[in-house]
Design goal:
Elements (H helix, E strand, L loop, with lengths): L7 E10 L2 E11 L4 E6 L5 H8 L9 E4 L2 E2 L8 H6 L1 E4 L11 H11 L5 H14 L15 H13 L5 E5 L7 H18 L2 E5 L4 H5 L3 E6 L2 E5 L2 H5 L4
Parallel strand pairs: 3-8, 3-9, 6-7, 7-8
Antiparallel strand pairs: 1-2, 1-4, 4-5, 9-10
Helix pairs in contact: 4-5, 5-6
């Protein structure tokens, strides 16, 4: 894909949650290096948009493309390859609790057709260094703090070098100090690697402290706001 082509491009797309319309006529473009927030009240459609990007929520109208994948009528066999091209970070970490940090990461690589042991070990070392957890590879998830577990989840999202990371409330279960560490990590990854990030959050304090593009979901619509005053005036 041409580097000037948007990584994600939605035009006049309706976003549904099951049979319910949650966002009408979404226009959304994500370019390399963007850091984008989706914000709004609980139930306003933020997470449903992310699920549309991964084809978990089918898209049936408008123009909807993620990378080289046209989401309108995407074939079931294409969906795993679409998802492999994205990194996803969840609020509740979703680590495998019965295996170590290293084995969590190895499981993902082997599940995405990595076969050479040396390459697997090198990639695990690289992502753990990126997130500052090189000494934790042998630990079990329950032996880690919440912030460390989220760093493992970010490392997992980085494994296949995605152009886009989708982060669904990645700081939602964390205290203020730990939130700051995770935000600094995500913004550094964005800045240093050019990986685009789309982050769902209801924490409006983050929007000014860690600037990015801001889309507000409200009243069945989601639109980008431009001015800092609009961000300051947000009230959820």
């Amino acid at each position: 894909m041409d580097t000037s082509t948007p990584l994600i491009e939605f035009s006049r797309v309706d976003i549904n949650n099951g049979d319910s319309l949650v966002i009408a006529d979404l226009d959304f473009t994500l370019n390399k290096g963007d850091f984008v927030y989706l914000t709004g009240k609980v139930g306003s459609g933020k997470t449903s948009i992310l699920r549309s990007f991964t084809a978990e929520n089918p898209v049936r109208n408008g123009k909807a493309r993620v990378g080289d994948f046209n989401l309108i009528g995407i074939k079931r066999k294409q969906i795993p390859y679409l998802r492999r091209s994205l990194g996803v970070v969840f609020q509740d970490f979703q680590l495998l609790m019965d295996r170590s940090v290293h084995d969590n990461l190895e499981f993902v690589l082997r599940s995405t057709d990595w076969k050479e042991k040396r390459a697997i070990e090198e990639r695990i070392s690289e992502v753990l260094e990126q997130v500052g957890l090189t000494s934790k590879a042998h630990k079990m998830p329950h032996q880690l703090s919440g912030g460390e577990q989220q760093r493992v989840a970010i490392a997992r999202a980085l494994l296949n070098k995605p152009a886009v990371i989708l982060a669904d409330e990645p700081t939602g279960n964390l205290d203020g100090e730990t939130t700051a560490g995770i935000m600094e990590l995500l913004t550094r990854i964005n800045r240093e690697t050019g990986t685009a990030i789309v982050m769902v959050t209801h924490n409006t304090a983050l929007l000014s402290k860690y600037p990015g593009r801001v889309f507000v979901c409200k009243d069945c619509s989601c639109h980008e706001i431009i001015s800092e005053q609009e961000i300051i005036d947000l009230d959820f």
